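Predict structure. Chain length: 599.
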Amino acid sequence: MDYKDIAKSIVELVGGKENIASYTHCYTRLRMTLNDLEKANKEAISQLDGVLDVIVSGGQFQVVIGNEVEQVYKEVNKLVGSETQKVEVKKKKTVKEYASGALDVFISSFTPIIPLIAGCGMIKVLIAILLNTSLLSDKSSTYVILNILGDSVYYFLPIFVGYTSAKKMDTDPFLGMLLGAILLHPNFSALSAKGAQYTSFINIPVRLVSYSAQALPVILSVWLMKYVNKLTEKICPNLVKVFLRPMLTILITAPIMLIVIGPLGTFAGDYFQVFCNLMNKWGWIAVGLNAAIFPFLVFTGMHNALIPLMIQMFATQGFDAVLVPSGLVANIAEGGAAFGVFLRSRDKKMKGTALSATISAIFGITEPALYGVNLKLKRPFIAMLIGSLTGGCLAGLLSVTAFSFVSPSLISLPIFAGTTRSFIGAIITVIATFIGTAVITVIMGFDQSGKDEIVSPLTGELMPLSEVKDKAFASGAMGQGIAIKPTEGKVVAPFNGTVMAIFPTKHAIGLKRDDGLELLIHVGLDTVNLNGKGFKAYVKQGDRVKMGETLLEFDQALIESQGYECVTPIIVTNSAQYKKVDVLASSKIKRKEKLLNVE
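Prediction complete.
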């Protein structure tokens, strides 16, 4: 993979660096927030060498790359720079876009501090191991200091989140930190420690709440502070702005935070605790269901939405017996299914891909297995879901519990070592899930022919593309395929898929099959000049279509009377991604008969 070239192509195809408001990366994805999503060419990016998929979710434009994402990110950083631009796009946002934006802020407020949380969490795991092996006493000062090291990130979470959320919302990060510090001030905490439930500020009641490990109140307060800060920036004279702006911003924002936002945020936290208790009550059933759902979250890019929930779970109860264990099971099952493909496949290239994907998955990077193997071959994906469900139930029954927030994989198994039972249970679960899913995959099997059949969208006589009286088609520059001289004016869908594009003149339609194959059906030569006369479309761009469903109708007699041919090229426009495109029929063909094999 040429990291420089792919980075350059991605930046260009998302609308240039001026369209990138912010960007970051996770383990496998380049995640960008764009000023205008409509400027991004999703289809073109998905076809780039090295790109596994492109997903738009949670307000982010996500380019799935796999293990080498960090190298691509570095090249993107060289092209875009650390200073990205926010361009005002005159477009009314929908409720869905506002919700996606809010989710993006919520997730992004936690993402930068995950390494800190993981490191401190591992200190807590170390403490548990030392206690279980009697190498440390819970009465010693060493135990107390180690606990301080492990707990501090959670206790002071509002300060960290105040900074990250302010950075994400493009406002003063130090004022964001200050808001978090106000919530945790020892004098404020001492008021509630004395047993009082309320105090007052200028005779307005202030509910006393412990804000340790709380994130939502400070995120909401930073959102308010962003607009207050803009106001004070505007009204404060330059001569005294250096101290008057922060002074007025805090005097306005902090009381509203303490009187209104903070208590409301804690109500949400109370409901979250109810959710945690419910999940823990369901036990093995909850783990099994979450493990089965997890691959779909990865598929849509929404798995990062669980990060704030998991962090809050560790912050409030100190462990997670549901979400992290289910993530471990799903990752191992993904690898087990890919290994089953490795064992059964007769294709050398697929065996190599499957083995590489297996290794990546068991070490926590599942996209190569998900997109490159299991989804592509379909049945291994089903086997993986079965393995995830059963493996998750087993993990729940064996009381597998995570004592630190770290991405679950084979290498991070120590996070389950808080108790001997949990650690042994995690080892048993990993082995059983991997072997079980691989066996299910081998038993279920999958299509090893490597061929994908396309049925004919027309009835008529076949003609080699080389004989078509149009150089673009005849030369093969647009891709491989076949042409049909139609005897009936009806075009049907040659497979299940999506309408990528349909020309306003209705003479041509582009389709994309669910596995990524792209097909162009171009009715006639130069028929674009008819401006739609003689054509009728039954679908529009973005529609889902089923094989055999009517796409277009055309008046062949009318078109030919205007001096145009109705010869219809049918082209696999991304045929460069395949070894070959074979024509199955000989001379004449009817609609829905087998036309092409692509492998």
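Summary: The chain has 20 helices and 20 strands.
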